[in-house]
Amino acid sequence: MQIIKKLDTLETHDRLEKLVESQSINIFKGAEECLKSNEMSLVFQEYSPYIYIFAHPRTSDDGASKRMLWQPRLTRPKPQTNSYLFRAKSKSDEIEICWILPPREMWPEYEEGKVTESEIVQWSIDMFVNHRDKLDQNHPEDLSDGEIKYIYKQVDMHFKQKKLGKKLMLPEWFV
Predict the structure, then answer these.
(1) What is the largest CA-CA distance in the chain?
(2) Which residue of 4, 29, 65, 106 has the lowest C-beta tally within 10 Å?
(3) Nearest in space to 169 (alpha carbons), one of 15, 44, 67, 57
């Protein structure tokens, strides 16, 4: 076997740290963009003291690349692998991580001692596996179902008045 290039462990470690930092920045930029630029998010924030931001990657139309879908919500979705959930205070920069769950086949990559080790991902995986009911619980300051229904009606009227043609995705229990 011929050695093409000897790895410099310090350089490799620096590149890994830069990659992890870059990925974190991309995730938080996506959450911030959803919070500050997504039209549905902005309208929700007019009526609610918080919003949830649910993100999950999907395969693009080309069948090869992935893109992240960012969905503002008033209700907490069921925990699922390959998803991210944040809770943001309306009209602010305050964003709380609820979970970061990679695809199940990637879980070992985030374990302690691995190069891509992540404390928040380890916590999210543990909660998903061992305490999913706790991960699924509403935040103590979440609005009641009645308050959320009222906001959905207001938001629905807002979009009908603007004639944007946006379809409001309502939770099953609302209909």
Answers:
(1) 70
(2) 4
(3) 44
pLDDT per position as a tens digit, 68-107: 899 999 999 999 999 999 999 999 999 999 999 999 999 9
Q: Lay out the sheet containing 83-89: strands in order across.
A: 66-73, 50-59, 83-89, 95-101
CA distance 75 to 95: 16
What stretch of H or E contains 27?
A: helix 9-37
Which residue reads 């300051």 in tokens? 141
Tokens of 6: 């000897």
Q: Which long-range contacts (CB under 8 A, 24 or more apart) does 152-157 make?
A: 152/74, 154/47, 155/40, 155/43, 155/44, 155/47
CA–CA distance, 166 with 87 (Å, rounded to integer)? 23
Which amino acid is located at 54 in the chain?
F
Pick the closest to residue 50 from 28, 75, 22, 83 (CA basis).
Answer: 75
pLDDT of residue 118: 86
pLDDT in tens, 134-145: 999 999 999 999
Give CA separation, 150 vs 41, 43, 145, 147, in Å.
16, 13, 9, 5
